[in-house]
């Protein structure tokens, strides 16, 4: 994962944010293009990294993996006109790639689709909604019979070099800047010098600035002026 994060970063960036959808919100019997078309304004996954900002409108680079969706899902039918650009793709990989390019234009995106889902057999905790089938797909309405344990789920996971990391890194910088390290003798007893600490603090601030966009840069300047 460290090497993957390095691959996704450039221009001084070093870290990546993690996103996931467990399970991937696909209706039973619904094609992959139909599922993704329902998320044209927002991504179907949630932020796992501890950033305050939970939505992302752009990213610099990303790697996305979708598991548990058949490669033939949504492949266009001969003689039937496609209802969207996603429906015109020839494979699940092309569908996901085109979706990412449409949602994040200009970003470097890699994507992979694997047929094998994630197993949720015991001892995996059964905290799933009764609206899920045994294979982890969504139902239109609750079943009339008692639901059985979910045995597997489709999952989407992503690593992104994204502006949301500016908030995380700059917040960490501000918290550490307020820390009076001289009050913690054991901190320097470990071999850390005050100068090294200050240098690392400035490097953290510089790293946070690498993830700024125009609006975030203005916010940072306002915060610096208020300090």
Word description of this protein:
There is one protein chain. With 227 residues, the protein is α+β, with helices and mostly antiparallel strands. Helices cover 32% and strands 14% of the residues. It folds into two domains: 1-161, no CATH class; 166-210. Strands 2-1-7-3-4 form a five-stranded mixed β-sheet. It has a two-stranded antiparallel sheet with strand order 5-6. The longest helix is centred in the last third of the chain and has 16 residues, at 194-209. This is MSTO1 protein.
Shape: globular
Alpha carbon gyration radius:
22 Å
Low-pLDDT runs of 5+ residues are: none
* Separation, N- and C-terminal Cα atoms: 36 Å
Protein name: MSTO1 protein
InterPro entries: DML1/Misato (IPR049942)
Describe the structure concisely.
With 227 residues, the chain is an alpha+beta fold. The chain has seven helices and seven strands. The longest helix has 16 residues, at 194-209.
